[in-house]
Automatic annotation (TrEMBL):
Name of the molecule in the record: SMODS-associated and fused to various effectors domain-containing protein
Domain SMODS-associated and fused to various effectors stretches: 308-506
Organism of derivation: Alkalicoccus urumqiensis
Pfam families: SAVED
Superkingdom of source: Bacteria
InterPro entries reported in the protein's UniProt record: SAVED (IPR040836)
Length: 508
């Protein structure tokens, strides 16, 4: 059994690290966050970390949010999980009297105001138990961790959901579904959050990007944990941006540097909510496409070309100006990243560079360097003629994962008339660190361009079907170079269910 004193200390430190992660979002140049608080006193029931926005943001369902109240609950081991019963158990959040749900109820009158609507977010490294009603009845939305109200309030009286609904009403001492909904709609569950060490590493990767000094891993003391503890002792728990920067300057933690150039405007495209829910805080403009998706899958009533491609084009046309410089966040499907690059090709008059997330945090993938391609791992290229009378060209890019077998299965299953299969791969095989930044990505994309230009003239007129696995920064850069490809069909790989490729966007 874990030492209870050590467990409590780790929990407190985990909360402080989470505060600084949110502070990094706060310190972004174009952040929409007005203030950030630690152990906030406004709503004592939900006080761990509180974010207040200058202008309300919208969740993926269109609901306005002005305040976010985070309850950060760390667990030393993975011996438990989130269940409906746990949400009704005070011990689950290390409380003596009130469960997380009752704390939300206590705060609901404040959170449900029209002028400053708020939500309560439970943050925990534990996951939802696969056999619990939360999972089996799909009560929690994978997009943002909210309760799926249309499922919870299904008007059935004898289902598992109906039993869960009655249990919730009894626990919260409410009389009807309307009262219950007014509480449940405020909740978000951020499950499967990072382990303690991963959270520290994630923070360290973000600090320098907003002008803060990275944590020295060779030292035992984490200055950010110590600083927040001291500020709490002094009664300083709520900060605006200027106050927090001055405090960091006083403690010699402020460097003032940023990964973006001053002239660059941050924009974003999002189709995944996980770890991108606060993109609004880091961008001057962004588009959220998540309402069109259920997890990674496009919902049945939407089309990749009719809806997704059209909205990408409209967003970029309306929000980017010729001669401008932009950094683009791409928390999205690879097809969307490629398409954004396609529309922002060199002839667009817009200078745009992707921001790539990786193991060491965010990095702007610039490609304007004189480093020669010989300094980086290069493609191995294999061309194979499958059918001399084929009408299509299959392009396979294996950067982070293998794709050859799945593509061959797709071609066979769909009866795709492929003349030539062109495979790009690394001698040492695919892995997460096979690409070394924007310069490397540009060299690799240029090599693909040169290879395809050397195909026979009749083949260059055929439709290119592009499959593969690579970081979105690479797909964006390849998209910028793809205007000369002619007709293009992009594909998404279904990692979760079918484990197969599915057609997505056609270009132009």
């Amino acid at each position: 059994m874990a030492n209870p004193i050590r467990a409590r200390q780790l929990g407190d430190d985990y909360q402080k690290i989470f505060f600084w992660l949110k502070a990094c979002e706060f310190l972004e140049e174009n952040s929409n966050i007005d203030t950030i608080s630690y152990e906030d006193m406004e709503l004592k029931s939900l006080d761990d970390v509180v974010i207040r926005y200058k202008q309300p943001i919208k969740d993926f369902k269109g609901n306005l949010i002005k305040r976010e109240y985070y309850q950060v609950k760390y667990h030393v081991t993975y011996g438990g999980s989130i269940t409906l019963d746990n949400l009704m158990d005070p011990k689950f959040i290390n409380a003596s009297k009130f469960s997380f749900l009752k704390k939300v109820k206590e705060a609901s009158f404040s959170l449900n105001t029209e002028d400053e609507p708020g939500i309560a977010i439970l943050v925990t490294p534990w996951t939802i138990h696969p056999n619990d009603v939360l999972s089996t009845s799909r009560l929690i939305d994978t997009q943002d961790g909210s309760f799926r109200l249309e499922t919870l309030f299904d008007e059935k009286n004898k289902s598992h959901v109906a039993k869960a609904r009655e249990k919730l009403k009894e626990h919260l001492d409410v009389q009807n579904d309307k009262e219950l909904e007014s509480i449940i709609k405020l909740i978000r569950i951020s499950s499967d959050s990072s382990t303690y060490s991963n959270l520290v590493n994630l923070l360290n990767s973000k600090l320098s990007s907003v002008g803060l000094r990275p944590i020295n891993a060779t030292q035992r003391i984490n200055p950010y944990i110590s600083l927040l503890a001291r500020l709490f002792q002094e009664g300083k728990t709520k900060f605006n941006k200027e106050e927090l920067i001055q405090i960091c300057k006083d403690e010699r933690l402020w460097t003032g540097t940023n990964i973006m150039f001053s002239k660059e405007v941050p924009i974003g495209i999002r189709s995944f909510m996980h770890r991108a829910r606060n993109m609004e805080n880091n961008t001057s403009s962004m588009i959220c496409l998540s309402e069109h998706f259920e997890g990674r899958h496009l919902k049945e009533n939407f089309g990749w070309n009719e809806d997704i491609k059209r909205k990408i084009d409209e967003f970029l046309t309306q929000n980017l100006t010729e001669g401008g410089s932009y950094c683009i966040h791409l928390d999205t499907h690879s097809s969307v990243a490629f398409t954004a690059g396609y529309y922002l090709d060199p002839k667009s008059g817009v200078k745009a560079v992707p921001i790539q997330k990786g193991l060491t945090g965010r990095e702007v993938w610039r490609s304007d360097s004189t480093i020669s391609k010989e300094q980086y791992p290069q493609w191995k290229v294999n061309q194979e003629v499958l059918n001399e009378d084929g009408e299509h060209i299959a392009i396979i890019i294996e950067m982070t994962h293998s794709a050859l077998e799945e593509v061959e299965n797709y071609i066979s299953d769909k009866g795709l008339s492929v003349k030539t299969k062109v495979r790009f791969y690394f001698e040492d095989g695919p892995n997460a660190s096979s690409i070394q930044g924007g310069v490397h990505a540009r060299h690799l994309a240029n090599e693909i361009l040169r290879t395809l230009k050397n195909l026979p003239p009749e083949d260059r007129k055929k439709r290119y079907h592009i499959f593969g696995a690579a970081p979105n920064g690479f797909w964006f850069i390849l998209g910028q170079l793809s205007r000369s490809f002619g007709q293009i069909t992009l594909y998404e790989y279904d990692f979760e269910i079918a484990q197969e490729y599915r057609e997505s966007i056609n270009l132009p």
